[in-house]
Amino acid sequence: MKNTGDPRLTAGEKARIALLTARMCKREFAGEAVDRRDLERKMDRILDGARQREEREQSK
Prior knowledge:
Layout: H1 11-30, H2 37-59
Helix pairs in contact: 1-2
């Protein structure tokens, strides 16, 4: 079930999130001591930008 708080993503945003997810998986294989916070912050910024874009489009 889709979370209603998730914004619609453009093709570019989907590709960037897919790449970041793959990088996070790769780091997970490297071990538990490897930090993934930087990639999680990048993903959060992409989602925040998509939410802002959706709000701008709805306000028009």
